[in-house]
Amino acid sequence: MLNSTKLGTTSIPKLLATMSAPAMLSMLVQSLYNIVDSIFVAQIGEAQLTAVSLAYPIQMLVFAFAIGIAIGTSSLISRRLGEGKLAEASRAAQTGLFFALISSAFFALFGYGISLGFLMLFTSDAAMLDMSVSYLAIVTSLSVGVFVELFCSRTMQSMGNMIIPMISQLIGAITNIILDPIMIFGLIGFPALGVMGAAIATVSGQVLSMIFMLIMVAVKKFDIQIFFKKFRLKFSTVKEIFRVGLPTMFQNAISSFLLTIMNALLIAFSQTAVAVYGVYYKLNSFVFMPCFGLNQGALPIYGYNYGAGNKKRFSKTVRLTLSVAIFLNCVGLLVFCLAPVQLLEMFSASANMMAIGVSALRIISFSFPAAAISITFVAMYMAIGKGSHAFIITLLRQFVLVLPFAVLLGKFVNLDALWASFAIGEYATAIIYIPLTVSIVNKMFAKKMKYVEDGFLTSPIVINSTIMGDEVPLPKEEKQKNFDSF
């Protein structure tokens, strides 16, 4: 049985290391989903790479819905576990699974129609439209894999289990890597399917990961009940999930929207510029995904200790996570500045693509250190149920403070100046939100202190207790101990 009380007792450095290491590896593996297709597709031709790049915003929209439901659910689960409310944590898990299935059915029914209309905004080239639509028809119709796998992974992580989600990601990535050349180029007797083969390889990996996760949920014993058992929707649970989930969806949808607008701006320069941006978007996942994995490991620690009212452990987790995240992104900055040619060569870059891409990678990479600050704050806000602030941060760094500069610099200066808009957005957001976050956290824990003092805060229950789901008031001496720790 998985014991979630370690989130409130193990030393923070050790806990963050053990929680984040598997998550970081999982996210690096997840990066392979983003990049392997493009590497193989680029070997067919630049037009095929552009077709996949144009399709990517819709693929990101599917992910936005899936990750929104998953994080909204896991945030609520970790907070309820911190408060010692197992019954409510179980209800949250079942509600999240219900909405994951509903959302995947929506994309299966309407994804093809949405994709066709969307892609016609960018090109009238019949061949490119056919490739992009074929890719998206498969990705959206079989999106149940990514919805259920992400839900199960985040739910397990909210209870402190990071190993099973890591194995699930490995299964999906290895499947994708093996099937990509087989399906794209037509090896070992399979027909050469090109771009459509890349889509089949991707969803095959996602579905196998989902099957593995469902088996693990069925055979393992957990602190909470995940599968439907006497399930009924409760408005308060739905509200709590989507209080964090909707802003998370929107912030990931903003990424899709930014990618869409940037494609529209870049195609005015050339199709090669679109391909370069698509390649950058895939490559930056190797910088951001470890940072996301680090914060993914920190998220249940935030949520649990916020629910338990332990400001000291919460604050220590934020500081340590922030320091490691900035270091990781500085390493990414160095790689992008020192080895842009080698990175672009993985995508069989033409001379024109190399000329545009080298400066693009170097200029955009200066945004990485500031991005680490925003990513850390976003995870922290989601963990404590303040999804609106997570959304505002994303809105600032990927829309409000980026697109106006991208439009102006691209129109009145040149393409290289357009790339600088990313750094402008990241650093401006960090400058705004560092003091604001300090103030918000202090005020929230001041309110928590009053709950502890008045005896309203409950302690985490022993997992094997017969009082599953009941609240256990803190004894007077424990209330005073927690109060003094602030």
Number of strands: 2
Morphology: globular
As a percent range, the share of strand residues is under 5%
Estimate the mean pLDDT confidence.
80
| Total domains | 1
Low-confidence stretches: 456-486
Number of helices: 19
Radius of gyration: 23 Å
Widest sheet: strand ordering: 1-2
Oligomer status: single chain
Biggest pleated-sheet summary: 2 strands, antiparallel
Order of helices and strands: HHHHHHHHHHHHHHHHHHEEH
Structural class: mainly alpha
Estimated helix fraction: over 70%
First and last CA, distance: 31 Å
Furnish the topology, listing elements before pairings.
Elements: H1 12-42, H2 46-82, H3 86-119, H4 126-141, H5 144-158, H6 163-185, H7 195-219, H8 235-266, H9 271-283, H10 285-307, H11 311-338, H12 340-345, H13 351-365, H14 368-383, H15 387-400, H16 403-412, H17 415-419, H18 421-454, E1 458-459, E2 472-473, H19 476-485
